[in-house]
Structures are given as structure tokens and as C-alpha cells.
């Protein structure tokens, strides 16, 4: 039996773990503040008791839908980068998980919109084959993209070393290998 592949000889280590940039929380926080201010002003001032109860109920539902749910959704999303793969978890009610081996990544692209530049974040595209995995609103995205590029290059170097090692190893006589001194098959 030959040597273990280099990627499996060393344990997988978590390099980065992050959520989308916190700028996604600005609008839900402003919505909660505005709803609390309007509800604080109107609830209790209406002439009928049922109207006050209805206004409080509407404010509670709006606060939950426009403020709390987006914050919980932000908390539920997380991206983990290890020495072997990128794992993206998203979703509050329906969980989605995407895994991409770094050995499959062919290119790391960076993209920043004007808003992302103002907030100090950006998007990273990991291209593999004809598809891509997009990491949106990555905080400290330049360092993250650099780390992903380096991990991708290390993965390629390990794969090439394994292929060279396996290519240099000769199969025993009974296993279909040529062995020393054997003539190659004629076609």
C-alpha cells in the first residue's frame, strides 16, 4: 500500500469562521427603533380599547417580521474555511449547506460595490468548473481572499506531490504493473 495522500495525512484545521458583514443589521435595527417609537406614541392614545390592542398587535408583528427575523437570519448564516474546504451554512427555517473542496477551486475573484467599499467589506467568488460559489459581504475580504488563494495553491501543491509519489511507485508483478525488466504491451 502506498503513502496516504498528503491532504489526509494532516488533520483538517479551521482557518476562518465568519458571518456576513454587520451592515445587514442596520435596516432591521432602524425598523425596530421606528416601530417602537410609533407604537410608544400611538398605543394607549386611541379612544377604544380594542384599537389600542390592535395597534400593539400590529406593532409587535411588524417588529418581529421587519426587525427580529432578519437578525435571526443573519445569526443563522455562517461561513467556515478549513485547510481543505469552504463550508457555507444559511437559512433560518430551511437550512442550506454548501461545501466546496479547495482542490476544486480554480480561481478566486474579488468584487466590491460602492456600498461595500464604504463599509469595508466585499464579495468573493470561488470559481470551480463552470459554476461559482459567491461569499457575499465578507468582512475583511482582502485578507480572506488572500487566505483562500493561498489555501487553494497549497491544495494544488499537495495534489501534485501525491500524483508524483503515486506515479513513481511501481505496482507489483501480479497487479498489472510492468515491474523491472518487463516489456511494455504492444498495441
Gap between N and C termini:
29 Å
- Largest sheet features: 4 strands, antiparallel
CATH topology: PH-domain like
Q: Low-confidence segments, ≥5 residues, pLDDT <50?
A: 1-7, 173-179
Tell the overall outline: elongated
Helix content: 40-55%
What is the level 1 CATH name?
Answer: Mainly Beta
Number of helix segments?
5
What class, by secondary structure content? alpha+beta
Q: C-alpha Rg, in Å?
A: 27 Å
SS strand fraction: 15-25%
What is the fourth-level CATH superfamily?
Pleckstrin-homology domain (PH domain)/Phosphotyrosine-binding domain (PTB)
Average predicted local confidence, pLDDT: 84
* CATH architectural type: Roll
Count the E strands.
7
Write structural notes for this entry.
- Helix 2 packs antiparallel against helix 3.
- By secondary structure, this protein is α+β, with helices and mostly antiparallel strands.
- The protein has helices at 6-9, 26-42, 49-76, 114-119, 141-168, and strands at 14-18, 78-82, 85-90, 96-101, 107-111, 121-128, 131-139.
- The protein has a single domain (12-168), classed as Pleckstrin-homology domain (PH domain)/Phosphotyrosine-binding domain (PTB) (PH-domain like, Roll), CATH 2.30.29.30.
- The model is unreliable at 1-7 and 173-179 (pLDDT under 50).
- A four-stranded antiparallel sheet has the order 1-2-3-4. Strands 5-6-7 form a three-stranded antiparallel sheet.
Question: How are the secondary structure elements laid out?
Answer:
Layout lengths: L5 H4 L4 E5 L7 H17 L6 H28 L1 E5 L2 E6 L5 E6 L5 E5 L2 H6 L1 E8 L2 E9 L1 H28 L19
Antiparallel strand pairs: 1-2, 2-3, 3-4, 5-6, 6-7
Amino acid at each position: 500500500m502506498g503513502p496516504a495522500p498528503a491532504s489526509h495525512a494532516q488533520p483538517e484545521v479551521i482557518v476562518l469562521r465568519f458571518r456576513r458583514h454587520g451592515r445587514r443589521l442596520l435596516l432591521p435595527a432602524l425598523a425596530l427603533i421606528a416601530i417602537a417609537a410609533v407604537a410608544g406614541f400611538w398605543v394607549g392614545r386611541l379612544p377604544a380599547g380594542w384599537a389600542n390592542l390592535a395597534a400593539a398587535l400590529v406593532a409587535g408583528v411588524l417588529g418581529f417580521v421587519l426587525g427580529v427575523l432578519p437578525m435571526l437570519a443573519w445569526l443563522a448564516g455562517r461561513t467556515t474555511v478549513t485547510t481543505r474546504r469552504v463550508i457555507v451554512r444559511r437559512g433560518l427555517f430551511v437550512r442550506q449547506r454548501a461545501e466546496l473542496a479547495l482542490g476544486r477551486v480554480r480561481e478566486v475573484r474579488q468584487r466590491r460595490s460602492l456600498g461595500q467599499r464604504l463599509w469595508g467589506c466585499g464579495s468573493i467568488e470561488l470559481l470551480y468548473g463552470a459554476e461559482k460559489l459567491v461569499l457575499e459581504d465578507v468582512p475583511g475580504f482582502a485578507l480572506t481572499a488572500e487566505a483562500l488563494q493561498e489555501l487553494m495553491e497549497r491544495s494544488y501543491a499537495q495534489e501534485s506531490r501525491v500524483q508524483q509519489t503515486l506515479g513513481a511507485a511501481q505496482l507489483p508483478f501480479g497487479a498489472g504493473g510492468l515491474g523491472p525488466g518487463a516489456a511494455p504491451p504492444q498495441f
